[in-house]
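anyone seen this seq b4? input:
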Amino acid sequence: MSFKEQLQTLRKAKGLSQEKLAEIMGISRQAVAKWEVGQSYPDIARLISISDFFNVSIDKLVNDYEENCHLYIESDKVNDLNGEVIDFLCKAKKSTYAGNGQKIKSSRPNSHDFEYVEGDFKYIDTYLGGEQFSGEEGLWKNHIPLWSMNYAGRVLDEGFSGRFLKEVLSLVSKDNPYRGPIIYEKGQYKYHCIVNGDFHWFQGYEEIYFNNNKVYECFFHGGVIK
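predicted toks r here
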């Protein structure tokens, strides 16, 4: 079921008109109408609001995700340099936090820091906190900054599994070199990641459900440094 069909089904199940849903979401009725006929698509913030309101995961909202992804979310268009950078970035991510890599000396009081170096490239990931956290990943070539990503997230329920999150993050790929794959399921856990933009400039959101209960969420954004 596509997003437009899913939204109509959820709205009608609650007995809401387009006008009433628009009022609840703080948007115009025309915006809802365009979503439901497939003329436009909500941004990440709106998707999260819709997900929370109807108490469904984002991946259920965008179940026909491949179609929606190609229609509304820009695909990565990388040149040779970015291809080399992305290759290194994926390897660095898999070798540090996600791969239980060795921490380096804290760069700030009580920060958690990881570093990965290969040839002229350097990757550093540093974050603060635990159950509620924020941090930044950065890439350098010959000590010149190339790319960075800021992130902030929180654990919402005791059903959260740090092991599952690391497993997801270890699956980072060249097609989606930010956090984890678009959708990943294992046992009672389900992970979903949505990204708007491309490697040069992007924003995204990831969530984890356990037994259909949201137990974790994280926002991230970043892009190429010039």
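Residues 65-80 have pLDDT under 50 and may be disordered. The chain has eight helices and eight strands. kinda curious what u guys think
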